[in-house]
Design a protein that fits this description.
- The chain is of the alpha+beta class and about 130 residues long.
- The chain has one domain.
- About 20% of the residues lie in helices and about 20% in strands.
- The protein contains two helices and four strands.
- The longest helix has 15 residues.
- The chain is globular.
Length: about 130
Amino acid sequence: MAAVRITIKDGVCQGKIHEIGQVFTVDETTPEGMCLGAWEAIAPYLTALRYGGNFPWESEKGVAVIHCPDPCGITLELRRIGWSECSTSDILMLRESRRSSMSTGLLDEKDCQPPRILRGMVNLQTPKANYPD
């Protein structure tokens, strides 16, 4: 899977959370500091980009431009980046987001590598409800 760089391109954030030029880089976790409205708007597009998808209405492959659900809100550009394209600031941002979400805060060289998908580790069966008769 690829990483995705999210850039705030235009508009005014009504919640005063985002500013034009603000950048987030996403790999395995949600970026710290992104509002829920913007995250929910971009999540399906971000997932498609991470798995190699493209959008026929976009002029450039690996890019999606999405508007915040707020009609007066921001415009976000999502751009797929390969791990070789990750800048030092991207890697540091990813490490910091992982550090803040980890209880131990310990990181190693694996944090700069593409994420692995672990097969068979998740039980997708719905537990049976215990309702009284």
